[in-house]
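Might I ask for a little of your time on a matter of protein folding? What I wish to show you is a protein chain and, alongside it, a tokenised description of its three-dimensional fold. I should value your view on which stretches of the chain appear to form regular backbone elements. You will find the record immediately after this paragraph:
***
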Amino acid sequence: MLTKKTMINFVIVSPFLQLAFLLVIILLAAKLAGYVSIRLGQPSVLGELLVGILLGPSLINLLHLPILSNEASGEFIHQLGEIGVLLLMFIAGLELHFSEMRHSLRVSALAGILGVIFPFALGWGTGLLFGLDQTAAIFLGLTLGATSVSISAQTLIELNVLRSRVGLSLLGAAVFDDILVILLLSIFFALSSGAGSVADIAIVFGRMALFFALAAAFGLWALPRLVRWVRELPVSQNVLTLAIVTLLGYALAAELIGGMAAITGAFLAGLMFARSPEREALEPRISALAYGFFVPIFFVSIGLSVDIASIKAGLGLAAVVIIVAILGKLLGSGLGAKWAGFSWREAWQLGAGMVSRGEVGLIVASVGMQAGLVNEAEFAAIVGMVIVSTLVTPPVLRALFKEPKVLEMKDEPKENIV
């Protein structure tokens, strides 16, 4: 027979109960912080990011409380958050159409490419200025070239401007950004390891081209037929399950075949499903799944993975890197949008949407740390840049998207869009 003391010990050490405890705290804190943020006139994502930092090592250190002995719980929370960002990007793609994305192709290309070149050049110069060797300085520049549009996408969804020409161009620019950064990182690691060659670079290009070809072929030809067949099956939530399998499959293919970020695959999966007649029925179901559970965990998990105190090790470098990171995206992507025919206001809106580095910046920085390309102080400076760039993006976007209202795609002549 279990005594009261035995029951208490069981509650403390049970891995499942520890995970349940973490999920209760994270979900309640995320929704409460989101509500407070909205009441203060800011997007809910800002509150969710901030509460994640408060629950993380910077203050409460939720994952390392004495009653939590199972280290795997923190990793499981992180993995749930990764599913959340995939669902978020799938929903962003689901709200768009190919025709709309085609209209914004030119501005997306210019904003995405210049949005990598400017931060890369500024980051490279900053590294050299602070005495980093050539390899570390180049890697710092590549880190600053990365972007994470998931934060911006959520903010634009809340502001109901995702389908504006700025929102469409922003999502397209993020795809170009991802392609270029991954390509440059692959070339950089190949050359720094001494194994770089024209063949290696060609392989990187070939993998990306193969992924896009397979993604387009499946999405345009096989997926519509598969949806029609699945929706007739006497199975509960059949189309929803197919959508989840498809987005996870595209995410896997983006990583394994294309060597790209999984969020790019998830976004493309959403674009493909947007062509389906089941889109209207699917959107509220997958949104409920995402925003009710996975997406809040993702935003909070960003804060759980960083410690603001560690930034003190490289405070001077961190301050300069933060300024350079923000200016690089604003100028690069903003000037690219202006070059493509956007007004200055729209150009700054798009540039601000590219500022956030989010989980992508942390992943790139971690790879560099493991490869010995940056030391602890330099890594801390990059983490500080990721935190600040992620936090400033939602309120800046909200401020920039205030009156005058942005124009919807349907209200714009095609020549102004491209």
User: Anything to note?
Assistant: Residues 233 and 289 are 22 Å apart (CA to CA). The chain has 18 helices and no strands. Residues 82-417 form a domain with the Na+/H+ antiporter like fold fold (CATH 1.20.1530.20). The longest helix spans residues 198-230.
